[in-house]
Amino acid sequence: MTGGEVDGLSARLEAPDSGTVVIRLDGELDLATRDHLSEAVWAVLPIFRPEVLIVDLAGVSVLDSAGIGALVGCWKLAQDHNCTLRLRNPRPLAYAQLRLTGLLDVFALAETV
């Protein structure tokens, strides 16, 4: 399944099994694109009803405070739907930002695949 591209951020959806959905992001997750991620999560949760939603950040070249805020908002939304949101494959700078903000444990980084 493929998502769209908006303002330099694309999202591809994968459902490797019935309980997990992966959103693979490519581009910049920032003020201009944060709503694209939120919209993808809003669409995925009621349709797939996953137990685990993984946001793969391997293709994210920029992650600013607005992008981190969007990730936190998506985490809260997933919690409201009894779903665990995990992050996977953040680049070193994104990993450092998540560590600095204390969010590594919140997002329970998924194994790299």
UniProtKB/TrEMBL annotation:
Entries under PROSITE patterns matching the protein: STAS (PS50801)
CDD domains: STAS_anti-anti-sigma_factors (cd07043)
Boundaries of every STAS domain copy: 19-113
Origin: domain of life: Bacteria
Gene3D superfamilies attached to this UniProt entry: STAS domain (3.30.750.24)
InterPro entries: Anti-sigma_ant, STAS_dom, STAS_dom_sf
Family of this protein: Belongs to the anti-sigma-factor antagonist family.
Name the UniProt record assigns to this protein: Anti-sigma factor antagonist
